[in-house]
Structure formats: C-alpha cells, structure tokens
Specification:
The protein has about 250 residues and is α+β, with helices and mostly antiparallel strands. The protein has a domain of about 55 residues. It is about 45% helix and about 15% strand. The protein has a three-stranded antiparallel beta sheet. A three-stranded antiparallel beta sheet has the order 4-6-5. It binds iron/sulfur cluster (2 copies). The site of one iron/sulfur cluster has 9 residues, from loops. The site of one iron/sulfur cluster (SF4) has 12 residues, from helix 3 and helix 6.
C-alpha cells in the first residue's frame, strides 16, 4: 500500500488516498469540528496514530500511470525531476519553512551585500526569505551558497530521492502546501484589524508574526476570524510536518 495524497477539506476532514497493487481507495477522517489549538490534540490522538499503521502496510507500486509501473523508476528517480521539484518549491529558501539559517562569517562575506545576517547565541544567522533566490526558483549564488544550503534535504525530497514517493506526488504535495499557506495568509489578513495589513507576498510564518504584533498593540480582532486563521495555520503546520518532516518555528 502507498499513500498517494493527504488533503485537508473545507469541512475539517482529512482525506487519505491510498494506492494498492490493483486499485486505489480513499478514507476520510473527521476531526469532530475542533478548531484552533485543539486541532493539534485531535491530530495527535487520531491521525498521528492512523498514519504509522497505514504507512506500515507493504509498499506497492501505484498503477495509475505507465511510468509508475516501472520499478526502476521508483528506485532511481530522474535527477531532473528532483531538481524541478526544488525549483518549483523553494519553500526552504523563501521563508515558508524556516525564518533563518545558520551561516558563517566567511559565507556571509562571500554572499556579499543584501543579505540580513544577525548574531544568535554566539553564532550567526541569515534571515529568510533569501535575497539570493531567483524568480525562477533557482539560487543565484549556487556556486558560493552556504554549506547548510548544499547539504539540506527536506523529508519530502529525501523520500522522492529514495523512490519512496514519485516525483509527481511530491510535486502535488508542494502545490497543496503552497495553497494551504496562501489560505492561512488570507485568513490572517481577514483577522487583522483594518489598519494593519498583511501583504499577500509574505509567508504564513510572517503573517503569524504580523498578526501577533497587531494583537500586542491591543487591536480589536474578530474572534471568529481569529479562530479560522489559526485553524488554517495549524492545517498548514501539520501538513508541513507530515510531508516535509519540518516543525515550523512559529
Ligand atoms: S523544501 Fe524540500 S523540496 Fe522544497 S526546495 Fe527545499 S529541499 Fe527542495
Ligand atoms: S543562498 Fe541559495 S540555496 Fe541558500 S537559502 Fe539562499 S537561495 Fe536558498
């Protein structure tokens, strides 16, 4: 069995699509309508328990495309496909998954002007989104990028590289992650007082920060919109954790 898709629905359910040797099926898990922070408790109690059980089923090749019937394709993914996955994603560079990365003085000098470096706990950090990320999703400083950038691989990329998931599935996860992030940003935009705005260009992490600033200033915030924004953010947060093996620092 192979999980091909996990999606979050508007009615607060998760749909898990599973491909088996000859067929595929979907199972929907309803979270009882819990919202806000209680979503995490529901997730830990229900879905996190179900996932290892589903994942422990014997793996089978999905049969919905000719390419996926070729075992060699799953064991040796196309390097172009992996490269395309990252250039179409950029979530680890653009500030969606991390707010900062560790950098040495030498690396920061090498990158030159226009990067935001600050000390933290006796070490240096560079603030993300990175100004060296091109509009095409490629690193404009590829040859001189920091060591952490060369070595980092998120859980999604590792699974795609190992052939545990197909690049096409990984690409769908990236697409869904971006859509969930956008919904979270929009929800915080709605929850913000009218005189404070969250730019649609920013990440969900930045939206949370901005929202907290607004709350810190004692602004009047609509309670229903606030709950809705947190729910969207927590969907996004859990989706990132499940698929990228990254815990957001919110
Ligand atoms: S988050 Fe993962 S898939 Fe996306 S660019 Fe970074 S390493 Fe690649
Ligand atoms: S230097 Fe390049 S690889 Fe590193 S965070 Fe910036 S854009 Fe990404």
């Amino acid at each position: 069995m192979k999980i091909t898709k996990i999606s979050v629905n508007h009615d607060k359910t998760f749909t898990v699509e599973v491909a088996q040797a000859q067929a595929s099926s979907t199972t929907t898990y309803y979270n009882g309508g819990v919202e806000g922070r209680s979503f995490s408790a529901w997730y830990d109690r229900v879905l996190a328990v179900e996932m290892p059980r589903l994942m422990s089923q014997p793996a089978a090749v999905a049969t919905n495309s000719p390419a996926s019937n070729d075992p060699a394709r799953l064991s040796k993914p196309d390097s172009d496909a992996l490269s395309n996955l990252c250039t179409n994603c950029s979530l680890c560079c653009n500030g969606s998954l991390f707010k900062r990365l560790p950098i040495t003085l030498e690396e920061s000098r090498r990158l030159g002007d226009g990067i935001d470096v600050f000390p933290k706990g006796g070490e240096l950090r560079m603030r993300l989104g990175c100004t060296r990320l091109g509009n095409d999703g490629c690193c404009k400083a590829y040859a001189i990028r920091p060591a952490i950038c060369s070595s980092y691989r998120c859980g999604l990329l590792k699974k795609a590289a190992a052939g545990e998931i197909e690049p096409e599935f990984a690409a769908r996860v990236v697409h869904e992650t971006k859509a969930m992030q956008e919904r979270a940003i929009q929800a915080f935009q709605t929850a913000m007082p009218e005189n404070l705005e969250i730019s649609a260009e920013k990440t969900a992490l930045a939206a949370v920060e901005r929202y907290r600033e607004g709350r810190g200033k004692g602004m009047d915030v609509r309670p229903h919109a606030r709950a809705n924004a947190w729910l969207h953010f927590e969907y996004f947060e859990k989706f990132v954790e499940i698929n990228f093996s990254v815990r957001l620092e919110s």
